[in-house]
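Section handout, structural biology tutorial.
Before the tutorial, make sure you can parse a SMILES string by hand: atoms, branches in parentheses, ring closures as digits. In the record below the ligand is adenosine-5'-triphosphate, and the chain has 864 residues. In the tutorial you will relate the predicted structure tokens back to the input. Do not try to memorize them.
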Amino acid sequence: MSRHSNTPVALQVLHYATPIVVFLYSTLAKTAASCFLHKPTKKTDAQTRRYAATTILLLVNATLVAQAIAYFIESLAHPGYWATQDCVVYVLGSVFAYGSLTLGLLEARHPVWHPLLGSCLAGAALEIPTTVLQAVTQANGNDFAFSRLALQVSRCILLVCFCASGGWYTLNERLQNRQKGDETEPLLSATANGHATKTNYATVPGSPEDHDGGDSTDEESDTDEPDQVKELKKQQRKRLRQTGSWLGYLKEFKIFIPMLWPSKDRFVQACLVVIGIVLVAERFLNVLIPRQLGIITDELTKGNGNGEFPLRAVGIWMLLSWLGSRAGVYTLQSLAELPVQQFAYKSIGATSFSHIMGLSMDFHNEKNSGELIRAISQGQNLQGLLEFVCFQIGPVFVDLAIAFIYVYLLFDIYMSFILAFVGIAYIWVGAKTTAWSVKRRRRFNTAYRNESKIQNEAINNWQTVSHFNRGKYECDRYSGSIDAFNKAEMKYYIAYFMGGGAQSLIMVLGRLAATFLAIYRVSQGAAPVGNFVALTAYWRSIESPMAQVSWSIRKVTSMLTDSERLLQLFQTKPSVTDAPNAVPLSIKSGEVEFDEVDFSYDVRKSTLKAVSFTAKPGKTVALVGETGGGKSTILKLLYRYYDVSGGSIRVDGQDIRGVTLDSLRDSFGMVPQDPALFNISIMENVRYARLDATDDEVKEACRAAAIHDKIEAFPDGYKATVGERGVKLSGGELQRVSIARAILRGPHIVLLDEATSMIDAETEATIQEAFKRLTASRTTFIIAHRLSTIQHADLILVINDGQVVERGTHDELFRQNGKYVALWSKQLSKEVKDIGNTLHVDGKAAALIDLAQQEESTSDSKKD
Ligand SMILES: Nc1ncnc2c1ncn2[C@@H]1O[C@H](COP(=O)(O)OP(=O)(O)OP(=O)(O)O)[C@@H](O)[C@H]1O
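Predicted structure of the complex:
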């Protein structure tokens, strides 16, 4: 079809090389820039530079389009003339290469310049000799040749202008930067507090706002997050814009690699090998099946209805088709993929669960369970990441490269161009719509978690909701959150489907163009009918992987976006951990010493100030005092839920920060203020304290805690389930089950935080014996508001406003006639008021009542 010309070989080589070099350089440099390069230009005159550069590149494209039109018009003007293949490749390839550069520049408000400059420099370096050679070889050419030469010269001038102005700008910029000095900012500014390393929220660089450099925080931010997290996110985005890149973003996810890669599981590794083999086989089958169909067609065409059946060719085709079908190698692949997915599902789930369980009390005080559970389940979607990247996205690029060569062999380079245009446009549109939808996806996720949070809160607080009759209010709130979720979902899916629609359009147009060209070639006798059949079948087989890659890119992006919250959780480190050289606690006698302990939950308010005391081995220390004084905090510090901010706590002379948390907590038996049980049987709940305890031991512990008879009276006895957090039990029953647990555990040190506050005096008397047994020869800490329960303690500490204001035994403190006595008098006076004159009081109590009345009248007179 082309008229043979006497184009010199050097010119032909330049024609082929120019678009390839420009395109390859720009692709590689852009990829490297998005991975490693950090600073897009944000100077004030950057926009002027961008507009000027875009104009030049558009003009370069215009010269190429004009050149293509010139060839076309010449072929019309001179029938039989057609540009040589190298010229067509040169023009179409250059449109492709410079077109992609222009598009990139149009998109990025703050472009990275060096890929652009380098590409144009390479382009100019090749265009100039091309133009000279063209001028020499076409010296006696016609008007068309001259017009083409003129276009070529203009293109050279434009490219040189681009490089010169770009070089000048870059030089200027460097000089200015040198004058200003280094302007880089640290990761977190001084305003971000010390918790910065704990939470770290990543966003997706490469999304439009990152290119744009605009502040998109408002739109993107999760509305339900505390200000501190928002601030950190803002800082993170800022940093990503300044120094960030996809590589930087993805680096954050490297935490997940050990959870995805089965480094120790031989079976899963074997499955991966099987998948690899199947993938290679699929690549071959993709080409062989349509090719075999083409061979059959050609044999049929040659036979022209002579009754000969192409048995061998059909047999091979049938075999290949079976292998390439869902019943063939794909089944093998699906079977092998299952263990790989399950491995990742398990390792992500188990690791995140154990990480969250290992986080400290400060985290658990702030958490929202519903939101947390959804974050884990969304993060588990990452299980498919390895599959998508290695088995779906990667092979498609191989497919495209094979397809480019195969369609060239079937027809010619024009067919390869159609394929390349379709492939790149398809993937480009896919990537663009993905970037477009990331923001919407993030909002959709936030709405999803918010809905879960509201639902969870309302169900968990059902009693509070009922007490205040706020059922309608909660329903409205939940339904509002569903509306917000639906809205966010709608917006996300609109973007998703629109992107899909645009891609399908590209695919259809590509198929039509390829079919048109193939029919034309066959009709001209340039290719056999079999090639047309092979192409039609093959085109379909490459369409689906292309759709797959674009879907996979979206899927990977949404997986990464979805798992950002889990990533954030993984980056949250427990504030209390084992020291690197921690050793197990060795308890000899159980002496506990608080030495000048300071502590605050919030740096702005101190909770404990210089608390010092010693709990002698086997003795009982009681903590009493005004509510909010810091008593429970003392026990929490002993448990190492928090670390002291000053001073130290020692158990048998060992600083608790130097021993392992497990060994420390194993030494304690705690009866908390508000015990919570699992929604399982009472037997299992008590056994939770010592998993190997027998039924008899459990019952013995319950007997000691004066709850055995009560449990036996339940219709299901020890098998009775206790409801969520133990709601089916009364407050007193709950506390006694909790005491039974502590008795069963048999700890070295006993901590009783208001352990009998909900138990009536009579029952309390019955469990005093149990307490005596529990605490005998064990160091014991008791917090009690009912002072009668602690009057026999070996040491009573009166805690007021975070300080030990009095200490001693009951009698010693009474003699001091200070705060302790005031507490007693207040309590007794209240009790007397409650029971009035019916109370039988002994002489001592009567004296105390007098004291209480005196105290009250003194304080009243002070007030007056
Ligand atoms: N997780 C927390 N975060 C911030 N402040 C806290 C936290 N827990 C307790 N506080 C504050 O620390 C102070 C001491 O609380 P703590 O629970 O130790 O008092 P308490 O003496 O045990 O009170 P009560 O007798 O009422 O149980 C209180 O002002 C309380 O508001």
